[in-house]
Design a protein that fits this description.
Blueprint: E1 2-6, H1 10-22, E2 26-30, H2 33-42, E3 47-51, H3 59-68, E4 75-79, H4 84-92, E5 97-100, H5 105-119, E6 127-129, E7 132-135, E8 140-143, E9 146-148, H6 152-163, E10 169-170, H7 171-178, H8 189-200, E11 206-209, E12 213-216, H9 218-222
Parallel strand pairs: 1-2, 1-3, 3-4, 4-5
Antiparallel strand pairs: 6-7, 7-8, 8-9, 10-12, 11-12
Helix pairs in contact: 2-3, 6-8
Bound molecules: calcium ion.
Amino acid sequence: MRVLLVEDDESLGEGIRTALRRAAYAVDWLRDGASALAAIRDGGIDLVVLDLGLPRMDGIEVIRAARRAGATVPILVLSARERPADRTLGLDVGADDYLGKPFDLHELLARVRALLRRSAGNAAPVLSCGALELDPAALSVSWQGRNIDLPRREFALLRVLMESPGRTISRESAQQRLFGWDEDVASNALDVHVHHLRRKLPAALIRTVRGVGYALDETVAQAPPEAVP
Ligand code: CA
């Protein structure tokens, strides 16, 4: 999942970016409102974490303009403007959630998870497909009740696939959701992650859709244990 972080305070931004990356999100970090609006209009972002007091364009204006332009991406506001009237304004111009500064990083991550699962059309906190389970909060994965240790990127890739079992995720979309702008990524990085996942889980669980991308195979995930190689 790709998160756009918009924060002009360097040390706070650094802390949030680190926390988001540890939670296996790809993070793009911008420090002013006008660039943020341009990035939101370009699309390809799963969630925006937005400060309000920003250079070049106030956060409230960013939200207003983004919604006017038809952007549906979830927006979580982080702000020191904490009066009820500020929160009301933030939500009413189109933010989806509002967290006052200072805040707890664990709470921020929990709100990020909640917004992401809602925007994916899910309500349950744990993603499951047959014998496969993924817990975004615990960053854990299990297959047939057995824990599978996955590095951050493989976890992120599986999370993307498990959001909509059976649906093909294009290579472009998967890449966009796994890697931030500033990351140096080899052209075959996605295939390498798929390859590693297939070695740790039943290989047939991740189906290659030729010329398009990858999909999680529901039939394999739901097969009785003895039928899965
Ligand atoms: Ca600020």
